[in-house]
Task: inverse folding
């Protein structure tokens, strides 16, 4: 009878709920963690902006003719790449412009003949040196007038406009066969290496960005490799549309595609502070923080994020360089909580 009662009591005891031990708890309530040492150091300060490739302010040239005329032929189209010396457009001077040139040629010829006549009379003592000086001035004026007309018109009934440098044709605001007035824009040309990426910088980052800093430009559509460039210009006012500060980033080679969007990463100095793994830094309503381990106790330390590069973050705070920071298991910790080291770290000092 006693044996049967003992067996029944044992079975009842087994049926009672048993205490459950968590995956990261021991009988002392500690949390399994991994730690890593901290150190003072620097990380590059990388500012990211986005922009579009556009001609630089000094990279575009507008071609025109300072005379009335007719667009006889357009040999290129917008977006076309051209070489220096390549024919772009043929322009026929109007009858009035040709007449003006002819009159200037005749005036120069007449001034030269008059100067020769006065010189001959002076040799015969039939003219004065003052008259010769006047004839010289008239000759110079006539030559200057003709030179000016020929610079504007080319000096021929038909003028061929050619590319002054390697570039890309921009707009062509005229049509073949159109009659135009003097000075009307005929064609715009942008230097092949004259594109910049116009981007926007946050006002808070403005003090860290300056002309000459290096930058990496990556096409947003993934169509090409990243290229290296430099900050060419940084504005000093907010763009009313974007509420950012305008900046231009230029490259040395003709690798940008006008109108394409780019991600711009600017090397804007360095961050100086405590170097810790990114995984060590947590956030809650009180701000950013890390846990440092002294013996088997975790201590919460408030920090300020300064920057990051890859898996490493740089922070500012009252860290103890002799104590490691928790990089795994920290999400389960409270200030003053007990910890135990992961097997791979057992035996390693935390202080």
Result:
């Amino acid at each position: 009878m006693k044996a049967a009662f003992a067996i029944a009591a044992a079975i009842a005891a087994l049926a009672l709920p048993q205490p459950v031990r968590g995956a990261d708890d021991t009988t002392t309530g500690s949390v399994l963690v991994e730690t890593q040492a901290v150190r003072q150091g620097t990380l590059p300060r990388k500012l990211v902006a986005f922009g579009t490739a556009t001609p630089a302010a000094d990279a575009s040239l507008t071609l025109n003719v300072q005379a009335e005329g007719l667009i006889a032929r357009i040999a290129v189209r917008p977006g076309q790449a051209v070489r220096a010396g390549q024919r772009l457009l043929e322009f026929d001077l109007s009858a009035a412009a040709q007449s003006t040139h002819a009159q200037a040629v005749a005036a120069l010829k007449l001034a030269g003949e008059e100067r020769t006549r006065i010189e001959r009379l002076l040799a015969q003592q039939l003219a004065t040196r003052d008259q010769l000086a006047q004839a010289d001035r008239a000759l110079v004026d006539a030559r200057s007038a003709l030179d000016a007309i020929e610079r504007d018109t080319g000096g021929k009934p038909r003028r061929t406009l050619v590319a002054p440098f390697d570039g890309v044709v921009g707009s062509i605001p005229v049509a073949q066969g159109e009659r135009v007035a003097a000075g009307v824009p005929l064609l715009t040309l942008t230097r092949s290496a004259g594109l910049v990426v116009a981007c926007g910088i946050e006002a808070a980052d403005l003090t860290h960005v300056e002309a000459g800093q290096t930058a990496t430009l990556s096409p947003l559509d993934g169509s090409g490799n990243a290229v290296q460039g430099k900050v060419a210009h940084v504005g000093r006012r907010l763009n009313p549309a974007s509420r950012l500060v305008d900046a231009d980033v230029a490259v040395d080679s003709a690798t940008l595609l006008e109108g394409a969007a780019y991600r711009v990463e600017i090397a804007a100095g360095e961050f100086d502070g405590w170097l810790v793994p990114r995984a060590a830094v947590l956030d809650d309503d009180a701000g950013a923080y890390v846990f440092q381990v002294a013996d088997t106790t975790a201590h919460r330390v408030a920090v300020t994020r300064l920057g990051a590069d890859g898996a490493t973050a740089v922070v500012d705070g009252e860290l103890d360089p002799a104590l490691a920071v928790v990089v795994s298991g920290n999400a389960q910790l409270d200030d003053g909580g007990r910890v135990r080291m992961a097997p791979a770290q057992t035996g390693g000092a935390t202080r």
Q: What stands out?
A: The domain at 62-190 is CATH 2.40.50.100 (OB fold (Dihydrolipoamide Acetyltransferase, E2P)). DSSP finds three helices and 21 strands in the chain.
